[in-house]
Design goal:
The protein is built from 5 helices and 10 strands; from the N terminus they run βββαββαβαβαββαβ. It has helices spanning 31-44, 75-84, 104-122, 146-152, 177-187, and strands at 3-6, 10-16, 19-27, 50-56, 62-65, 90-97, 125-138, 156-162, 166-173, 192-203. Helix 2 runs parallel beside helix 3. The relative contact order is 0.17.
Length: 205
């Protein structure tokens, strides 16, 4: 199963009719981490009028809150931004310092949407997929053949060591692992060692 998430915490802020909006976005592994992140932001901004949020977990669990704003004007817009971007394993909190000017329901929806969207724009998106970690070893004379083959199968090079032979660590999506090995063996006329050493989620962005 592939999923999109963010690499680390980010924030983005702007003002709208004297109200300050600060969008925070972070990767979370589970509900406990999401709740912890929300509480952390609340503690940072105890004097803020609202700390609205939405999160979507990798298992499909999701939640959102207007935190005192009119119903449907904050939590849902934040959630919809995350959903539209196809993100999961993320939590977004938008803090609002009220500036004394009412924005109206439409203005609030636009402001919370913008705060969440700006936070997403500030983030580095990770496209995670279950991958086979593969060790490839070839003679120097065959090394030049490999990059094009890796590219053909969307494999990502994680490490290269130039010793007696060239030893390369690559990650390839699970469904392409066998085909990659067959192509490497064919291209190198069998003079290559290809060993799968494990499976893990890897960023193919």
């Amino acid at each position: 199963m592939e999923y999109k998430t963010v690499e680390g915490r980010v924030e983005a802020r702007f003002e709208e009719k004297k109200s300050e909006f600060i969008g925070y976005l972070a990767p979370v592994e589970n509900e406990e981490e999401a709740v912890g992140f929300i509480e952390e932001i609340r503690a940072m901004h105890r004097k803020a009028r609202h700390n609205c949020y939405a999160y979507i977990l990798r298992d499909g669990g999701a939640r959102h809150s207007d935190d005192g704003e009119p119903q449907g004007t904050a939590g849902v817009p934040i959630y919809e931004v995350l959903q539209k971007e196809g993100l999961s394993g993320v939590c977004c909190v938008v803090t609002r310092y009220f500036g004394g000017v009412l924005l109206g329901a439409g203005g609030l929806v636009r402001a919370y949407t913008k705060a969440a969207a700006d936070a997403v724009l500030a983030a580095k998106i990770k496209e995670m997929a279950l991958a086979v970690k593969t060790e490839v070893s070839v003679e120097y004379s065959l090394y030049g053949k490999l990059p094009k083959i890796f590219e053909e199968f969307g494999a990502k090079t994680a490490d290269e060591k130039f010793e007696d032979n060239v030893k390369i660590t690559v990650y390839v999506r699970e469904q392409f692992a066998n085909d990659l090995e067959a192509k490497l063996v064919d291209a190198c006329s069998g003079n290559v060692t290809v060993a799968a050493v494990g499976k893990e989620y890897y960023d193919f962005a």
